[in-house]
């Protein structure tokens, strides 16, 4: 394998990663610790903002919720949440695509610690290769965000924060095993000393897997598997992951550095290749300067590497290697109390290397943006505009506007509007004998309304949206190439509630989605999006014992554009329990898909049946 974990330490030493900036009119403070982050979000506005003041639909999954859920992968953690549909090709480590509010998988911006990630060739993010054991928290922002983040932010933005560091010295470790020969372990430490912070975490995961493709007879290009000869073997997955971080607060100046490296070995079914060795690496750096209580500046830089070596029955057949370099400078200015102006510039360079020869293998994107946030009495306002200039497709301007009004009794109504776009990928533009260099960006416009209520132990929010996308890129039989020939409409509603009932913690979400392909008035549903979805989590503590369950239900979906292959819906139930053996030692156990339901999210690809897993965690109490 050409990938090694060791180079990460050297890469981190060269760069200094971004920590999210606080509003410019706030007092200077040390970097937020985990307990502080529970009360704020940064992804919705690129500034620290109290979670109750955010006008956009946002969901936050913190470390406590991650460990309580006992999810073993990022797709497992995200499944069934409001607005989210997942399509997986055969279990842990296999290709997993995420649709948010019905938007395409490449219509979502994903950030890791503020650094943009994803493949410039396919436009996808390898969610299955981002280790959940090294994640501190996740922020999901639904709705268009191109006015702040540029290309791809049609459906929304997902930001992943790696593990954070607490005061003093905090070692931790875990070990576990379960079904399908699965086992994992991890070790790490974190701490603060004076003005400096530091930490490192390593995680290992392995599973023998199961037969990914449900094809018993030779059928050329059979459904989604695209194999001519069945391979009834176990399709396993191995992952090594390392996270490092450090930084120092010098008062008006703050420097920090962190990086994440994940290496995987993945077996699957396929004619061209049936094994890959993958690499996901994110490193970045930030320098923050706060000259006064009303102004601050943040300079960031980072790189994401998405690479893979391909094998067929042990024979090396090729590779791809994509780099995404990014940098940004943002200034936040407190114009008056509760009035904040943010301006900035962003730069991104995508580069492609591999066996496939592209006519163009590198491109730059430069952008400038401005955002104004204000609060006056019971009213909240957020407005943003951005201009992107890409050397391949030229300039594009996007904007957004959101307003909220608070009422007595904890009620709030909000309304928003935004435009967004998505630049064509390298594969769509330049893949030999397939790409079309004359493609234009896909464009969208979204309107949304929301109502929320927060009163004591109840937090409820209902959001409705309508998104229309023009110039969708699809295969055009008339020219034998991809072309801007399709139109689509996605509309729906999402309901989320968190409360306590008779000592039970309850978190639930419901989603309704109606997608339509409006090309040539076909009015067909977009594939692999469930029309209905629900997730409910119940947890309760009985002294040192905690029990819980997660139920997920999804309606039927179509697997193809023509709506001829219908996949049935599914309903699964996971049970979990944990017991505090000591203040530092916890034993966890989980049974997933208790009733052993058989279902598919992509045609012909198996999903795991009933699974069990046991984990022992060590983390000294504060």
From TrEMBL:
InterPro entries linked: B12_transptr_BtuB, Beta-barrel_TonB, Beta-barrel_TonB_sf, Plug_dom, Plug_dom_sf, TonB-dep_rcpt-like
Residue ranges of domain TonB-dependent receptor plug in the record: 53-157
Superkingdom as given in the UniProt entry: Bacteria
UniProt keyword DNA damage, yes or no: no
Main localization, broad class: membrane
Gene3D superfamilies listed in its UniProt record: TonB-dependent receptor, beta-barrel domain (2.40.170.20), TonB-dependent receptor, plug domain (2.170.130.10)
Protein name, as recorded: Vitamin B12 transporter BtuB
Family according to the record: Belongs to the TonB-dependent receptor family.
Regions annotated as coiled coil: none
Segment forming the signal sequence: 1-26
Residue ranges of every copy of the TonB-dependent receptor-like beta-barrel domain listed in the record: 269-594
Matching CDD domains: ligand_gated_channel
Keywords: Cell outer membrane, Ion transport, Membrane, Porin, Signal, TonB box, Transmembrane, Transmembrane beta strand, Transport
């Amino acid at each position: 394998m050409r990938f090694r974990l060791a180079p990460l330490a050297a890469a981190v030493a060269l760069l200094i990663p971004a920590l999210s900036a606080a509003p410019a009119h706030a007092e200077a403070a040390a970097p937020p610790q985990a307990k502080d982050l529970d009360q704020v979000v940064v992804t919705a506005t690129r500034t620290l903002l109290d979670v109750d003041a955010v006008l956009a639909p946002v969901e936050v999954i913190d470390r406590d919720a991650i460990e309580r859920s006992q999810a073993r992968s990022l797709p497992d953690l995200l499944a069934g949440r409001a607005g989210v549909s997942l399509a997986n090709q055969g279990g842990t480590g296999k290709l997993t695509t995420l649709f948010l509010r019905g938007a395409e998988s490449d219509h979502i911006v994903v950030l890791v610690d503020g650094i943009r990630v994803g493949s410039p060739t396919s436009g996808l993010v390898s969610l299955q290769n981002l280790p959940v054991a090294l994640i501190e928290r996740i922020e999901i922002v639904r709705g268009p965000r191109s006015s702040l983040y540029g290309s791809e932010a049609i459906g929304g933005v997902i930001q992943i924060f790696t593990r954070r560091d607490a005061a003093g010295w905090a070692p931790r470790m875990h070990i576990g095993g379960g079904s399908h020969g699965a086992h994992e372990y991890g070790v790490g430490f974190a701490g603060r000393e004076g003005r400096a912070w530091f930490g490192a975490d390593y995680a290992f995961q392995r599973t023998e897997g199961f037969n990914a493709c449900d094809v018993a007879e030779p059928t050329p290009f059979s459904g989604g598997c695209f194999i001519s000869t069945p391979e009834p073997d176990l399709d396993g997955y191995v992952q090594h992951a390392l996270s490092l971080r450090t930084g120092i607060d010098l008062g008006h100046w703050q420097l920090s550095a962190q990086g994440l490296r994940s290496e995987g070995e993945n077996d699957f079914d396929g004619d061209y290749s049936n094994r890959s060795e993958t690499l996901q690496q994110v490193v970045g750096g930030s320098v923050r300067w706060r000259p006064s209580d009303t102004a601050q500046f943040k300079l960031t830089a980072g790189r994401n590497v998405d690479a893979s070596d391909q094998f067929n029955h042990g024979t090396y057949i090729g590779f791809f290697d994509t780099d995404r370099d990014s940098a940004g400078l943002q200034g936040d200015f407190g114009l008056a109390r509760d009035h904040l102006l943010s301006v900035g510039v962003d730069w991104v360079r995508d580069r492609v290397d591999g066996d496939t020869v592209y006519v163009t293998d590198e491109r730059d994107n430069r952008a400038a943006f401005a955002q104004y946030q204000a609060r006056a009495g019971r009213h909240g306002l957020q407005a943003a505009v951005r201009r992107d200039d890409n050397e391949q497709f030229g300039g594009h301007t996007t904007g957004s506007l959101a307003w909220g009004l608070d009422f007595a009794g904890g009620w709030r109504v909000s309304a928003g509007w935004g435009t967004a776009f998505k630049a064509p990928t390298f594969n769509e533009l330049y893949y030999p004998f397939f790409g079309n260099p004359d493609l234009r960006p896909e464009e969208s416009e979204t309107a949304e309304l929301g109502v929320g209520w927060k009163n004591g132990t109840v937090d409820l929010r209902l959001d409705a949206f309508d998104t229309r996308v023009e110039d969708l890129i699809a295969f055009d039989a008339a020219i034998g190439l991809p072309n801007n020939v399709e139109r689509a409409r996605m509309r729906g509603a999402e309901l989320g509630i968190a409360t306590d009932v008779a000592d039970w913690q309850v978190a639930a979400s419901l989603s309704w989605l109606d997608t339509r392909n409006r090309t040539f008035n076909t009015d067909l549903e977009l594939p692999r999006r469930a029309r209905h979805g629900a997730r409910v989590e119940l947890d309760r503590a009985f002294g040192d014992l905690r029990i819980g369950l997660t139920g997920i239900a999804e309606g039927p979906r179509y697997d193809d554009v023509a709506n001829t292959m219908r996949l049935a819906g599914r309903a699964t139930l996971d049970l979990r329990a944990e017991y505090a053996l000591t203040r530092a030692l916890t034993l966890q156990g989980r049974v997933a898909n208790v009733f052993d339901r058989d279902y598919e999210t992509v045609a012909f690809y198996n999903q795991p049946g009933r699974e069990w897993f046991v984990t022992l965690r060590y983390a000294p109490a504060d």
